[in-house]
Specification:
Length: 315
């Protein structure tokens, strides 16, 4: 953040970065997936981001040395975030519209809340939270209804497959989020994130090599620029802004990205890719966004997050 800006201006700028850059990553993923296999997109995005974050840590004198047990935990969370979640998301966007994908992924905070409620010692949902969860279920049904009707007549099974992949992606991210909170990393947030992204890059690269993705890759200008955008703006700039907000703003306010990002993604999908949602899907998207907001704001006494527990690279 520029040092000459007031703290209020920095906060506004940080929110703008998180809202726009994370919301726009769905469009960039759509473009990248047109030219490169999902594991290859994930591999290069994470390799570039890990290198930039590592250089940042070295330049700032942040130690990257962590205990072996912590390194394993960071690697596990990173693979869930940026390998399982991200590669599945990229794969899903070869089957469904980018705006549609963002609406399903917006369910992550609700999945986190449900997992926490089920685990001993986790944060429990109050009545307002359960109401939000029911609204989210109704929204998901409305979002899926047009595809279910078409699939019943032998069409649009691709959208159903994309929906299932997105649910798995969201679940992986939710599990990673809960594990991150439970592991209670005592590591600098930037060092922890560097480890997470680096571990994911190795896994993504291994999958790409095993699948022969390099041989089938189409190295177009649009695809390369989309990957660079995802790495620089989606991961590094967006993450830096997010870390800054967590240090200066209440977590519940920062969490508003979960229902602002899909709005940005849907609008960009309409403007750039001429995507359209059916009336039932529009109604479902409204219900989902309202439900996410309800669940996020329903936690009256949330437990304070441990270091790095809120570092979410969401797309």
């Amino acid at each position: 953040m520029p040092f000459h800006l007031s703290q209020k201006a920095r906060i506004v700028l940080a929110f703008a970065c998180v809202y726009f850059f994370w919301g726009s990553t769905y469009g960039a993923i759509h473009i990248a997936a047109l030219h490169l296999a999902p594991p290859l997109v994930g591999a290069f995005r994470t390799l570039i981001a890990a290198a930039m974050l590592g250089l940042f840590c070295l330049a700032r004198g942040i130690s990257l040395r962590v205990p072996r047990r912590t390194a394993g935990q960071l690697a596990l969370v990173g693979v869930l975030f940026m390998s399982v979640n991200n590669v599945l998301l990229i794969w899903a966007e070869t089957k469904v519209a980018s705006g549609y994908a963002s609406l399903v992924i917006a369910m992550i905070p609700i999945l986190v809340a449900l997992i926490e409620t089920a685990l001993p010692g986790g944060e429990t949902l109050n009545l307002r939270g359960w109401l939000g969860t029911l609204l989210a279920a109704a929204g998901m049904f409305a979002l899926l209804w047009p595809s279910l009707r078409r699939a019943a007549h032998g069409a649009d099974r691709q959208t159903l497959a994309g929906f299932a992949i997105l649910v798995l992606a969201a679940l992986a991210f939710a599990i990673g989020s809960v594990l991150s909170r439970r592991f209670r990393f005592q590591v600098d947030p930037f060092a922890a994130t560097t480890w997470q992204v680096a571990a994911a890059s190795l896994v993504n690269l291994a999958i790409a090599l095993a699948g022969g993705n390099f041989a089938s890759a189409q190295w177009t200008r649009a695809g390369v620029l989309a990957i660079l955008y995802l790495a620089v703006f989606g991961s590094v700039v967006g993450l830096t802004a997010y870390v800054y907000l967590l240090q200066h703003v209440a977590v519940t306010k920062v969490s508003t990205y979960a229902f602002v990002n899909p709005v940005i993604a849907v609008l960009l999908g309409v403007l750039l890719f001429h995507e359209r949602l059916a009336p039932a899907e529009i109604a479902g998207s409204v219900l989902i966004l309202f439900a996410v907001a309800t669940v996020i704001l329903s936690r009256t006494k949330p437990a304070p997050p441990p270091p790095n527990s809120e570092l979410r690279i969401s797309a």
